[in-house]
Specification:
721 residues, 7-stranded parallel beta sheet, 6-stranded parallel beta sheet, 21 strands
Length: 721
């Protein structure tokens, strides 16, 4: 059933090279051993292969072609249509170098049915000799018609009369310094040597018709009569086998990572009962009641924290679903148990938003316990930073909120037990490992990762299979629906009129620009010019502010404070306000050059309005090209924004348009994205792999490990952070 046509795609992501040590040089006398430079002793071809990640024999075997050329037959020129790529054998009837309009080699050939002109703008003496008058040659290229007759630009040239290949010729993704013939030889050699014994268990219900060796041999050298469409859309049974193997390797690695974490130990954070509990006191002072989804998620987190196995949970929820209060309650659970909590955000603006809320909720409650909330960022003055670090090391600071500064080498915790990472896709593996390394006593901290970008189901099944996922699928009461309008840039004056109307009602407005300064390459209005334009159009009574990433941190904080307090009426900003900014009085968001933003980013920006009781709108101001259109992908993004405000539907469409990389961000820096399987279309294969992986690890652990090693090698380590 797996061999039915399923559309797929190759992602030609070169595999990172497997870890191998370069040969060590003999150390000089009385000196420390010298290490060879990476790649020392390798030929230029070997260095190029290593850059492509081609080290092991299996790496070559799994390096599949991006397309094919048909060199299996000779055709007559008279039978070739203009625009066809064809292979002919012909005799050279003339050959000369001309210099108008530029230096080029022009050769005329005759195959007995018609004549054709060959043109070379780059050529060598050896090619001139090969194309001497009277030589019979085999040529392949695109045949073009024209006023001067048929022409082939830069055809491949071989001696005529040699045997024709029996299979299509593979064309591989390559880099400078590695020609196709050399790469083909290396791949053929590696494929022949590779160990391709069966790793799928014989007791599995699905036994594919194609074994791995047969599938790989076929995909490297397909028969000429194969339907080319089945190779291009990956629906051929050979492709189904390869995609199934790849997905199984990913699932096995994720389950192994989960199993290894289960063997680690974390502090047991039992919930304190009664009104002495910080959790109960926090719930009592919150100015709102929790939604059913928030209560459910807090319960899930509480159960995890009460165990000695480290929590590894992803909290996902649409913009405005109330993730911050869940984080505050998780922190309170940790503090109740006598431990410290750290909350890390990717930007100071987002970190300061969290700090403002959590200080307001928790600081008065912690003060009676002789504890406090600390604040750590890279822009702090040394004296303030030293004070905060001392409070963390002594245990006085029960909770620290900050940016990457939280994981700096100098920071020491008294007893960190819970790490919360907001916008987790903005952090890499190394950063999360550094945060985990701050725990004491050889234990792991519990880890709660938060994302305002809902994860599509297929992505959660694959790249997030090692996580427990909690979902806030209910918006708090009082959030108003956001009307989204698509407006062409030539109607800019109408948008400014709408801004004026909102201001007259006492509301505030965001205007988002994609660039800070003019670019010669991309003709966009810059944020400063837009601020000046709006100030002129709206009059002296309207205060228009400017916020962008190049401003000093203190200046950015001052601008946000002015806007939050209502003293700025319009805020012109770059995407630094994408997440975390919460100004309930802002009711209109204008996104300039919306066609240049990603779909998830547009949705995040739109979520900055509609946070209060006022009716809110988001205007997507787009700039069509000279033909009055925008690109196909941009059009799909804008259409999705206009049609739905459901974050999960937005995420599903974004996965279709842009692939999984946008969702993963830095989560697996260095780890492989799927090269062959397509999450949008290979759901049944993914479900098969997901069901088989845990059984295979339990019943056939040696087979499982061989399968992971074959497909991932050392890269599986990236999946365990």
């Amino acid at each position: 059933m797996w061999e039915r046509a399923l559309c797929g795609r190759v992602q030609n992501c070169p595999m990172p090279a497997a870890s191998q040590s370069a040969p060590s040089e003999k150390p000089p006398p009385a000196a420390a051993p010298a290490k060879a430079a990476p790649g020392a002793g390798l030929s230029a071809v070997q260095r190029a292969l290593r850059k492509l990640g081609l080290v092991r024999d299996i790496d070559f075997a799994l390096y599949l072609p991006m397309r094919y050329e048909d060199e299996t037959q000779i055709v007559r020129l008279t039978d070739v249509r203009d625009g066809d790529t064809a292979q002919i054998e012909a005799v050279v009837t003339s050959s000369e170098v001309v210099y108008r309009p530029r230096r080029q080699l022009i050769v005329t050939v005759d195959d007995g049915s018609d004549t054709c002109q060959l043109r070379f703008f780059n050529f060598y003496p050896s090619q001139q000799k090969q194309l001497a008058v009277g030589a019979r040659v085999r040529l392949r290229g695109e045949v073009r018609g024209g006023f001067m007759g048929r022409t082939i630009m830069h055809p491949t040239v071989k001696a005529a009369g040699t045997d024709l290949p029996e299979a299509l010729t593979p064309v591989y993704s390559t880099i400078a310094g590695l020609a196709q013939p050399a790469l083909r030889r290396e791949v053929r050699s590696g494929l022949a040597r590779a160990r391709l014994d069966e790793t799928l268990p014989r007791d599995d219900a699905w036994q594919p018709a194609w074994d791995l060796r047969r599938a790989l041999n076929f995909l490297h050298y397909p028969a000429p009569d194969v339907a080319m469409a089945t190779l291009e859309d990956h629906s051929h049974p050979a492709w189904q086998r390869i995609k199934a193997e790849e997905l199984l390797a990913q699932q096995l690695s994720q389950h192994q990572a989960r199993g290894e974490r289960a063997a680690q130990r974390a502090p047991v954070l039992s919930r304190v009962a009664g009104m002495d509990s910080l959790v109960e006191q926090l719930l009592a002072v919150l100015p709102f009641a929790l939604t059913g989804a928030q209560r459910r998620v807090v319960e899930e987190i509480g159960k995890d924290l009460a165990h000695s196995v480290p929590m590894h949970r992803l909290l996902q929820g649409d913009v405005g679903s109330g993730k911050t209060v869940v984080a505050a309650l998780a922190a309170a659970l940790c503090i109740d148990a006598g431990y410290q909590c750290a909350l890390m955000a990717p930007t100071e603006i987002l970190a300061s938003q969290h700090f403002g809320k959590l200080v307001g909720w928790l600081d008065p409650l912690l003060a009676s316990r002789g504890r406090r909330v600390a604040w750590l960022t890279g822009s702090q003055k040394k004296k303030e930073r030293d004070t905060m670090e001392a409070a963390l090391e002594s245990g006085e600071a029960a909770l620290v909120i900050g940016t990457h500064a939280v994981i700096s080498e100098k920071v020491r915790f008294h007893n960190l037990a819970l790490a919360i990472v907001d916008e987790q896709h903005r952090f890499g593996v190394a950063q999360r490992l550094a945060l985990r390394g701050k725990a004491v006593g050889g234990q792991e901290p519990h880890l709660l990762m938060m994302s305002a970008t809902p994860i599509p189901r297929t992505l959660a099944m694959s790249y997030y299979a090692d996580l427990d996922v909690s979902t806030l699928d209910e918006l708090p009461p009082g959030r108003t629906p956001i009307v989204t309008k698509l407006v062409a840039d030539h109607r800019r004056d109408e948008v400014i009129e709408r801004i004026q109307a909102q201001l007259e009602q006492g509301r505030q407005v965001y205007w988002v620009c994609p660039l800070i300064e003019e670019s010669e390459a991309v003709d966009l209005r810059n944020a400063t010019a837009t601020r000046d334009e709006l100030a002129d159009a709206l009059g002296e009574q309207v205060q228009v502010g400017l916020l962008h990433s190049r401003m000093p941190t203190a200046e950015k904080a001052a601008v946000m404070e002015e806007f939050s307090a209502g003293r700025l009426h319009v805020l012109v900003s770059t995407t630094v306000i994408e997440v975390g900014v919460d100004v309930p009085n802002a009711s209109l968001m204008v996104i300039e050059h919306a066609e240049r933003f990603g779909l998830s980013q547009l949705h995040q920006l739109r979520g900055r309005v509609g946070r209060g009781a006022a009716a809110s709108a988001c205007v997507l101001l787009y700039s069509p090209n000279e033909g009055g259109r925008v690109g196909e992908a941009a059009r799909a993004r804008l259409r999705a924004m206009a049609e739905t405000s459901d974050g999960f539907e937005i995420a599903r469409r974004d996965l279709e348009i842009r692939g999984p990389g946008e969702f993963l961000g830095a989560r697996q820096s260095g780890a492989p994205l799927l090269r062959f399987a397509d999450l949008a279309t290979d759901t049944r294969l993914l479900e098969w792999a997901r069901e088989l992986a845990p059984r295979m690890l339990g019943d056939h652990p040696e087979l499982a490990q061989r399968h992971v090693d074959r497909w991932l090698g050392s890269r599986s380590e990236y999946l365990k952070a």
